[in-house]
């Protein structure tokens, strides 16, 4: 079996490697020469547990190869980005470009699968495009009788940090442009998925993916809203959540400095922009989560202004714990504003970065390690719940002013909690 995976990012590369491990001949296609070169040398350009070993193994055995050029294959998996523009309207340009490239080499019997998170209807647009570009082939949804190729949507659902485990163990939703397409795609996923593979229509599968991430966003927004209420009331939100979650049917998620990553902070907008009148809750959740960033900046600023003599360490830039991914990261946004506002009083601790991101170039902020922060900073703003921060013992921070947006240090003395400093009101 020959498989082409288009897009060698956080989803495409692990997917390509896992398929290659099953013995299939996999070609990874990417637009960046540096990515192609890195993969062909058996290395990885992204940090993900166990991915480096897997990629070096399948490349060494000749099962995975990368290229800028697509080649004829039996199965095509599209895993390219679907960003949104300034008006939150989704941009499926990369998906359509990938489909255009596939059209050049498509032949009867092939299976085309879209995995990128996409607005409802995108898979049908891919089919339509292929029908326009390849009038010599019978494309599903655009022909009578049995089609020459199969086209399906099967969203990835893996959690960064657990990608290789979840790629295999998670259930998969497989939506065909026709039921026959779904069955063909199902055969492919059965090669490497241990979880259940459930078939449906392409549109239902597309909406399922968006619903999953919107569900999480709405639930995190509830936790973030509670944190604002608790802040106003002078109550410890972490304690309230711990207590509420003792109820058998309550399971409140964790507040934080906002919601980041390229999924939860993005995908709900795909639903909102498709049905604005029907989505006040989903839109508001997005606004609550984005608004939390401003609240954290205000609270952290108040703490820093309260004592001009102390240096401040912002702990973490990643969008969540124990990963090196800074996309849409609220921690990065907060740290950047604090660095711009307070100059060289602010230092950044991020064990997952070897240098500060380019956005910090105009600031005086420095990247320091945990030990230096403990020695030289009198104040901590906890922005990411990395394990390495969580494990700092009380005696190394008891005397610091701490604003802990992730609730990682419940034992911090109340008198040394920055959030206890009320704003001017
Ligand atoms: N967060 C909180 N509080 C929480 C949980 C998360 O503030 O209680 C924040 C995180 O710190 C982070 C953001 O939310 O900034 C998103 O993190 P996440 O762990 O919830 O999700 P992602 O973006 O890493 O992965 C999600 C997953 N979707 C769901 O759990 C429904 C994953 O399964 C998807 O595959 C992925 O999006 C994706 O690619 O769509």
Automatic annotation (TrEMBL):
Arranged from A to Z, the UniProt key words for this protein are: NAD, Oxidoreductase
The source's superkingdom equals Bacteria
Q: Specify the UDP-glucose/GDP-mannose dehydrogenase C-terminal domain's residue ranges.
A: 313-411
**Pfam families found in the cross-reference section:** UDPG_MGDP_dh, UDPG_MGDP_dh_C, UDPG_MGDP_dh_N
Q: Name one GO molecular function term.
A: NAD binding
UniProt xrefs under InterPro entries = 6-PGluconate_DH-like_C_sf, NAD(P)-bd_dom_sf, UDP-Glc/GDP-Man, UDP-Glc/GDP-Man_DH_C, UDP-Glc/GDP-Man_DH_C_sf, UDP-Glc/GDP-Man_DH_dimer, UDP-Glc/GDP-Man_DH_N, UDP_ManNAc/GlcNAc_DH
Q: Which GO terms describe its biological process?
A: polysaccharide biosynthetic process
Q: Does the keyword Nuclease apply?
A: no
By its UniProt entry, which PANTHER family does this protein fall under? UDP-N-ACETYL-D-MANNOSAMINE DEHYDROGENASE (PTHR43491:SF1)
Protein family according to the UniProt entry = Belongs to the UDP-glucose/GDP-mannose dehydrogenase family.
In Swiss-Prot or TrEMBL terms, this protein is called UDP-N-acetyl-D-mannosamine dehydrogenase
Organism of origin:
Sphingomonas psychrotolerans
């Amino acid at each position: 079996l020959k498989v082409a995976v288009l897009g060698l990012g956080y989803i495409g590369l692990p997917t390509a490697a896992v398929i290659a491990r099953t013995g299939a001949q996999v070609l990874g296609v990417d637009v960046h020469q540096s990515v192609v070169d890195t993969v062909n040398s058996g290395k990885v350009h992204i940090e993900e547990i166990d991915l480096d070993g897997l990629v070096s193994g399948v490349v060494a055995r000749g099962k995975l190869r990368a290229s800028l050029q697509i080649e004829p294959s039996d199965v095509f998996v599209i895993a390219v980005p679907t960003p949104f523009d300034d008006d939150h309207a989704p941009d499926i340009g990369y998906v359509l470009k990938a489909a255009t490239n596939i059209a050049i080499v498509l032949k009867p019997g092939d299976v085309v699968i879209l995995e990128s998170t996409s607005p409802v209807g995108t898979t049908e647009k891919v089919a339509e495009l292929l029908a326009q570009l390849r009038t010599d082939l019978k494309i599903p949804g655009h022909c009578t009788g049995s089609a020459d190729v199969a086209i399906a949507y099967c969203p990835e659902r893996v959690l960064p940090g657990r990608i290789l485990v979840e790629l295999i163990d998670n259930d998969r939703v497989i939506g065909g442009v026709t039921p026959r397409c779904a069955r063909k795609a199902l055969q492919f996923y059965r090669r490497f998925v241990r979880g259940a593979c459930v078939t449906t229509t392409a549109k239902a599968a597309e909406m399922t993916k968006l619903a999953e991430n919107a569900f999480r966003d709405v639930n995190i927004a509830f936790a973030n809203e509670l944190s604002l209420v608790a802040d106003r009331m002078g109550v410890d939100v972490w304690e309230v959540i711990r207590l509420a979650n003792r109820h058998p049917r309550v399971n409140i998620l964790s507040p934080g400095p906002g919601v980041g990553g390229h999924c939860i902070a993005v995908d709900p907008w795909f639903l909102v922009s498709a049905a604005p009148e029907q989505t006040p809750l989903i839109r508001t959740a997005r606004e609550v989560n984005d608004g939390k960033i401003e609240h954290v900046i205000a609270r952290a600023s108040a703490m820093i202004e309260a004592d001009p003599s102390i240096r401040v360490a912002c702990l973490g830039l990643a969008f969540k714990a124990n990963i090196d991914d800074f996309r849409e990261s609220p921690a990065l946004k907060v740290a950047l504003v604090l660095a711009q506002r307070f100059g060289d009083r602010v230092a950044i601790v991020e064990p997952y970065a070897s240098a500060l991101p380019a956005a910090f170039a105009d600031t005086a902020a420095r990247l320091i390690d945990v030990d230096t922060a403990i020695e030289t900073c009198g104040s901590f703003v906890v922005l990411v719940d990395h394990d390495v921060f969580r494990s700092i013992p009380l005696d190394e921070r008891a005397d610091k002013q701490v604003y802990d947006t992730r609730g990682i240090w419940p034992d911090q003395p109340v008198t040394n909690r920055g959030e206890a400093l009320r704003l001017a009101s």
